[in-house]
């Protein structure tokens, strides 16, 4: 059954194959048909393949993301000053869970954090996997997550639970086996409506485009980052391209080196991760100050960016300084223990 109003899947495919861009409204119509189960697997595969070959525009990504947000389960909370650190994955580099550790440090520094994430897609351990290994209950529903955020300043939103309508696209995504617009959409659809974000991207050529999309979706401040050595994080092994969405709504793109934030360079091999249990142990060592090397430094770099984006530091270098103090004082470890305890308690609250 086709949509009664708006563009049909066949109409969208004809436009895309002809090299035309979809309007924001047309993109939304396409996504609506995907999310409510009207589109066939062949139509979904055709549209996302055509978009990938043409190159997705700001309007197309924004239209898809708006509709995906509308189908999501929502966490009712104050959105102002709320940070997410969800990235796209897809780097192909088996690093440990840098953004997950960074989100806990940012929360310990006073930034409200709604961490959106999933199980492993490209690496060995996604944020859900490592938090579970740390002892966090990752299965909180909307009310439980809101209570967790209210009580301790951080919650985790497990993407599989909050975006059930994505099941209609799961088959085509798996069978295609290459990156599509869906790889971009997860980080753009925080169920709590976070208005600030550190977003790691697998494609360095797209940072400005994605920052513009975040602005169009109403975010107040964001850093979209992609490193020269292939990380979807801020690297300590090479320069990183940063597209910064400012509170004036403008996007500024620049390169950032580790040295500019007061961090030493390390080889990429020094931040390799492993299983969820191994990555959890790395995070525990960082928070207990047993780890003083590359693992700590790349977390300092990215946690500093979170603290800066969240408004608790005036510069990224100041954010790194605050992140270091939060770890050394034991506040990061204490925040992790709070998260473990609170999510465990809430698991028994309906």
TrEMBL record:
Amino acids binding Mg(2+) 2: 232-233
Top-level EC class as recorded in UniProt: transferase
Residues that bind anthranilate 2: 173
Involved pathway(s): Amino-acid biosynthesis; L-tryptophan biosynthesis; L-tryptophan from chorismate: step 2/5
Record-annotated Glycosyl transferase family domain positions: 81-332
The keyword Endoplasmic reticulum is assigned to this record: no
Binding site for Mg(2+) 1: 99, 233
Keywords: Amino-acid biosynthesis, Aromatic amino acid biosynthesis, Glycosyltransferase, Magnesium, Metal-binding, Transferase, Tryptophan biosynthesis
Occurrences of domain Glycosyl transferase family 3 N-terminal (ranges): 12-71
Chain sites annotated for binding 5-phospho-alpha-D-ribose 1-diphosphate: 87, 90-91, 97-100, 115-123, 127
Documented EC number(s): 2.4.2.18
Keyword Transmembrane (UniProt): no
GO cellular component, as recorded: cytosol
Single GO BP term: L-tryptophan biosynthetic process
GO molecular function, one term: anthranilate phosphoribosyltransferase activity
Extent of the signal sequence: none
Origin superkingdom: Bacteria
InterPro entries xrefs: Anthranilate_Pribosyl_Tfrase, Glycosyl_Trfase_fam3, Glycosyl_Trfase_fam3_N_dom, Glycosyl_Trfase_fam3_N_dom_sf, Nuc_phospho_transferase
Subunit field text: Homodimer.
Function: Catalyzes the transfer of the phosphoribosyl group of 5-phosphorylribose-1-pyrophosphate (PRPP) to anthranilate to yield N-(5'-phosphoribosyl)-anthranilate (PRA).
Protein name: Anthranilate phosphoribosyltransferase
């Amino acid at each position: 059954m086709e949509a009664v109003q708006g563009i049909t899947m066949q109409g969208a495919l004809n436009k895309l194959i002809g090299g035309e861009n979809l309007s924001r409204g047309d993109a939304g119509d396409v996504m609506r048909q995907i999310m409510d189960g009207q589109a066939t697997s062949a139509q979904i595969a055709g549209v996302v393949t055509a978009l990938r070959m043409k190159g997705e525009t700001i309007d197309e990504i924004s239209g898809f993301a708006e509709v995906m947000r509308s189908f999501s389960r929502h966490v009712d909370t104050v959105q102002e000053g709320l940070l997410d650190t969800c990235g796209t994955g897809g780097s192909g580099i088996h690093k440990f869970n840098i953004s997950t550790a960074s989100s806990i440090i940012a929360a310990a520094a006073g930034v409200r954090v709604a961490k959106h994430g999933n199980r492993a897609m490209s690496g060995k351990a996604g944020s859900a996997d490592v938090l579970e290994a740390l002892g966090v209950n990752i299965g909180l529903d909307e009310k439980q997550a809101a209570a967790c955020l209210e009580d301790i300043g951080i919650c985790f939103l497990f993407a599989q639970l909050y975006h059930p309508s994505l099941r209609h696209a799961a088959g085509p995504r798996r069978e295609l086996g290459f990156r599509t617009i869906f790889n971009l959409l997860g980080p753009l659809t925080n169920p709590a409506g976070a208005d600030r974000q550190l977003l790691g991207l697998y494609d360095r050529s797209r940072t400005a485009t994605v920052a513009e999309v975040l602005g169009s979706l109403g975010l107040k401040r964001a850093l979209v980052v992609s490193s020269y050595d292939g990380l979807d994080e801020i690297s300590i092994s090479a320069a990183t391209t940063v597209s910064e969405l400012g509170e004036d709504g403008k996007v500024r793109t620049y390169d950032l080196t580790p040295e500019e934030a007061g961090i030493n360079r390390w080889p990429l091999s020094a931040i390799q991760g492993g299983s969820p249990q191994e990555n959890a142990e790395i995070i525990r060592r960082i928070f207990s100050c047993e780890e003083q090397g590359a693992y700590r430094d790349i977390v300092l770099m990215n946690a500093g960016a979170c603290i800066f984006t969240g408004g608790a530091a005036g510069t990224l270098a100041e954010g790194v300084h605050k992140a270091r103090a939060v770890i050394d004082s034991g506040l990061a470890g204490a925040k992790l223990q709070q998260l473990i305890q609170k999510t465990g308690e809430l698991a028994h609250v309906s």
